[in-house]
Amino acid sequence: MRFSVSLTSQPKSSGMQVGLQGVPVVGRLGFRGAWQCLGVRRIPAIALVVLLNAPGFGLHSAAEAQSKEPELKIEGKVCTAAGAAVAEALVSLVNGAEEKVAETQTDGDGKFVITVAVPGKHTMEYSDQANFTIAGVRDWSAGGVHGSDVKVRTSETLAKEAAALKSNSANSPGGSANDASAHRLLGDAKEKNRDAVGAVSEYEKAVKIEPSEENYFAWGVELLLHRAGVAALEVFRKGSVAYPKSSRMLAGLGAAYFADGQYGEAAERMCEASDLNPRDPVPHLFLGKMEKATVDLPACSAARLKRFASEQPESALANEYFGLVLWKEGRREQSSIEIQEAEDYFKKALAIDPSLGEVHVQLGMLYKARGESREALRAFQSAVKASPKSSDAHYQLSLAYRRAGNAQAATPK
User: Fold this and answer.
1) How far is it, in rounded angstroms, from Cα 288 to Cα 155?
2) E-state strands within 106-218
3) How much is the pLDDT for 216?
4) How far apart are CA 126 and CA 108, in angstroms?
5) Which domains can be identified in the chain, with CATH numbers?
6) How many Cβ atoms from other residues are within 10 Å of residue 388's Cβ?
7) How many other CB atoms are found less than 10 A from the CB of residue 343?
8) What is the number of H-type helices and E-type strands within the chain?
9) Are the beta carbons of 128 and 112 closer than 8 angstroms?
10) How far is CA 61 from CA 10, 19, 52, 55, 245, in A?
């Protein structure tokens, strides 16, 4: 993505291409910093801008030098990457002190005009919360997450559960006594009001003032929640370097890697997070969800989930996830011993929590693979009873009925 800039007062400069890194006040995860943080391929919109006497962008003419109070006039058009005009996009002009000096909206043709008599350097940004990547934030309908539907759903779950690790800002040390806390609290409020763009901006300001673990985490999670995976990766990387002993920072980094389709890296970071406090279930639970969504993860994942099941045998999910590891390994190696162990762990999980419909499904699949049709049918029946809204459970039960020759029972009522 680039800005196309021409100056009517300097015809020779007409059509001059100015990249994003040439725009003043870089560093924010908006269009000013998108070049560095998101990459060109991540930006779904293009702004074509014509500057009329625009000294604020660092392009000066002789006439401007003679003007004591130059007038800044910006005319432009906002369109999608395909060239379609975008109406009602918010266009703002921000000065070097991060103060908004003017704003407008695009018309029905995607065009806008901003005129302001303010000297100094300025930065232009625009937003449309429903359709654009703004400050690294993307709407849920955009393709910001890699992989199959299962992986996408898993990524969304990881993002939401990572967000649940945020501290209660109101009770954090210092409260709203300093500027950083004030910006973080404002970010929390904007997130509750569904203003993701505003929330990201506030969290970023908090980090700039006070790069604390809490502020880094709040910023990264906000980006992750709104599918800004690349930007979230950058924030969590920096946060992890600054706070290498933060388990939740590593967990957030792992979730960001998963969202970006880097599943091996995601698992490695979760393993590191689990090693910081082996009794903490959160990184292990994240690993378990990754195991359910992917075929091959690094060996550290199986080792950490084995430890989880060994040290917390009373946890139904610990038994389920390690059972899943054994079930996958048993099928891959055609090992009847590991498959039997997987069955034992699945049964332990259901003894603790019979409502785990997915475990009933896995147990049914295990029985089916061993040719134990009756046991498989009973397991799928239990799965539907435990999770009546599970399409997978209903589907497997229907197939089991058909294999048993009961086509009538297989037909949904």
Assistant:
1) 13
2) 111-116, 122-127
3) 96
4) 16
5) 2-127 (2.60.40), 137-261 (1.25.40.10)
6) 10
7) 20
8) 17, 8
9) no
10) 7, 20, 11, 8, 53
> Are residues 20 and 3 in contact, defined by beta-carbon separation less than 8 angstroms?
yes
Distance (Å, whole) CA 210 – CA 366: 52
Neighbours of 11 (CB within 10 A): 9
Q: What is the pLDDT of residue 11?
A: 33
Task: Please report, for residues 46, 57, 336, 399, the alpha-carbon distance to residue 94 in angstroms, rounded to integers and kept in the order given.
Answer: 19, 11, 66, 61
Spatial distance between the Cα atoms of 375 and 88, rounded to a whole number of angstroms: 59
Name, in order, each residue with C-beta under 8 angstroms of 31's C-beta and a sequence gap of 6 or more.
1, 20, 23, 43, 47, 124, 125, 126, 134
So what's the pLDDT on residue 87?
76
Query: Per residue in 230-248, is it b (16+ CB within 10 Å) or e — as a string?
Result: bbbbbbbbbbbeebeebbb
CA 89, CA 142: separation in Å to the nearest integer? 17
User: Which token pair is 101?
Assistant: 């000096």
| CB neighbour list of residue 188: distance below 8 Å, 6 or more residues apart | 169, 199, 218
Low-confidence ranges of the chain (pLDDT < 70): 1-72, 79-83, 94-99, 116-148, 168-177, 410, 412-413
What is the distance between the alpha carbons of residues 345 and 340, in angstroms, rounded to a whole number?
Answer: 9
Name residues whose C-beta falls within 8 Å of residue 104's C-beta, 6 or more positions apart in sequence: 90, 91, 112, 113, 114
Spatial strand order of the sheet with 111-116 comes to 45-52, 72-80, 111-116
For Cα atoms 317, 290, 347, give the angle at the middle one, nearest 5 degrees.
30
Instruction: Tell me the C-alpha distance between 184 and 204, whole Å.
Output: 9
Q: Is 400 exposed, middle or buried (0-12, 13-18, 19+ CB in 10 A)?
A: buried
Work out the angle at residue 71's Cα, subtended by the Cα atoms of residues 69 and 77, and round it to the nearest 5 degrees.
160
Exposure of 290 in the CB half-sphere (CA atoms within 13 A): 34
Compute the distance between CA of residue 380 and CA of residue 403 in angstroms, rounded to an integer: 13
- The size of the chain, in residues, is 413
What pLDDT does 382 receive?
97
